[in-house]
Specification:
- This protein folds into four domains: about 160 residues, Tetracycline Repressor, domain 2; about 130 residues, Nucleotidyltransferases  domain 2 (Four Helix Bundle (Hemerythrin (Met), subunit A), Up-down Bundle), CATH 1.20.120; about 180 residues, Orthogonal Bundle (Hypothetical protein af1432), CATH 1.10.3210; about 90 residues, no CATH class.
- The chain is about 60% helix and about 5% strand.
- The strands form three sheets. A four-stranded mixed sheet has the order 3-2-1-4, sandwiched between helices. A two-stranded antiparallel sheet has the order 5-6.
- With about 700 residues, it is of the alpha+beta class.
- It is built from 33 helices and eight strands.
Length: about 700
Amino acid sequence: MKMTFANTRNPEISPGEILQRGRTLLAEKNMGGDSLKFLSANARLLDDYFRHSFEISRTGPAMDLVRNPCAIIALGGYGREEQCLASDVDLLFLFREKIPASADNLIREIIYPLWDMGIEVGHATRCVAECATMADDDFDIFTPLLDARFICGISQLYSNLMDRLGKTVISRDRDRFTAWLVKRNQARHQRFGDSAGLLEPNIKEGRGGLRDYHTMLWIAGTRSGIRQRRDLEYYGYLSHTEYNELIQALKFIWHVRNHLHQLTGRKCDQLYFEYQIKLAEILKFRKTKGREPVERFLGVLHDKMEFIKQQHLMFLYELGIPATRKSRCGIAGQTQVRGLAVRKGKLGFVASRYILSDPKLLIAIFEESVALKIPLNVEARRLIKDFLYLADKKFRRSEAVTKSFERILTAPDPEFNVLDVMLNTGLLARLIPGFKEITNRIQFDSYHIFPVGRHSLRTVQTIKNFGTDKDTSGYRFCGDLYKKLKNRKILLWAALLHDIGKGIPAGGHSLRGAVMARDLLTARGLEPADVERICFLIKEHLLLMKTATRRDIQDEETAISCARIIKDADLLKMLYLLSVADAISTGPKAWNDWTATLLRDLFVKILNIIENGELATREAVEILAVKKKLLLGAARSPADFKEYESLFQVMSPRYQLTIDVEDMMDHVRLYQKLGDADFVWDIVRDRDSNTRRVVICARDRPGLFSKI
């Protein structure tokens, strides 16, 4: 059967050559433009190739296509016209009845030139009845047919197949298909991981990747008959704002995927370390506010993938997946908060007017979610985003809002993480403005797995899991310490805010974070003593881990120096728990058996000194303060003062406590004489005993004492 076309073609140029030239030109001219238009144009080039090849086929006329018509059908991403640069091309050669023997020759004519160009082609050859039967028996075959699109041949075959699928699989098995797809997604997520927790995310198969978006399309296709992305909005699966955000997220991920294909010269969906810096450069990210281009690139990518992940979860929530467990408070619907209601096992607002009349409902709904152990419904999450402007300065500084948030912060986690939902809706960043800067901030190294904001929430969750069946520390020790804490609120506030200083460029995030936390917590009316302890934990949250991994913890001086900084046993316990949770939430390179043992041993030594020792007592601290003052007072110039202060800091605690100030001054002056010499010495005669004391100051080296 001969196909006719409006456009004319040069008969001297093969369809394959035309396709190759078109793809080369498309890649050269349009890679930096609108990725959605690129994908569509790439698919149209393939469409034209198949139509042209089918038209000039030598085999076609001999196949008696009038009696047994044929059609070429695009499947999968090609069917959706989402054809990335090096994506596979999936095809169905569809016949009305039996498949003629010469069909293989037709396929070879059409497919082989694509293989020669390096294009991966997956194809199947079936008749309508066989295709419908196989799709009915196997959802793996049925799924790509949901994206089927007619290319050329007899269109009636395509229509017949779609009608049969609609009357069988779609009408009869859509619930079973949804359950199968959800189960397969769970296995996929387990295999490829969460984009929020991977240093090298898979932008197609990972959670938050393109496959989550495909899942939404497929389920909506079987339930509502949608055929295009836009229908997700028209059929009410997404709001207008959500649809526009989805398109922007998809465009960015497709843009990254195209350039990843071009950079690797093949289909590649895993964003390996070796490509990340180069991709950031190709995508024209620039260093801004102290953030490297690659960190900004990964931050945007994470933000887009997190949006798709959340939309996918909300989409499933709307379908009742997973099924909501009954509240321990009894029958669903027993919320006593005016303006809130439980429907179908989810918590939501009765109507938006209640939020306008009482903005505190924006946080009350989260507190009620924790109390009832019921997640928020999708509409509630949308309304919270819409009414975020009500969470203004007055709202943030309200005592009632602060108390409500603290109850959420300190409550045991239910099956779902309420703080995560607060972060995803934007309310957490409204309550704690500094959180906006760290939500998607990426640290480009092999050490930190999660974005800073997500890491902070995981640190809180890790602490609350100590002593439960979700404890990931590997030791009962942490659970025992956590249960005995008198004021867990202090520790959890510190965990939430410990990295908030990373939102501002330049180093020293611990000190900067402590300053930010003091301003924030004071404005919210927390007790001054609590604020000081929280700020101390934030300022020193790296002290124990750095000391344990970089210094000799068997040296008593190491533990003594830490004890002098911490001073208080309860504060030490909280600092230890924060250090453990911080390391666990950072990743396996920060928390392993080696670091766990070092940290615990250091903690025990410091605790023993604070509770039983004398070198860290208030009296010892006062003695050291007096000696430091006397030593600095002996300085003869500003330069001497600066040098004496520096030297005092490196003196061991035992030396500082046992050596008189006068001798200390003599030793400092002897050190100043050393200069570039190997050693200097001083001989002092004691007139009363007629003895000599020799003081040697030398550069440390192996065998020094034996040579002396």
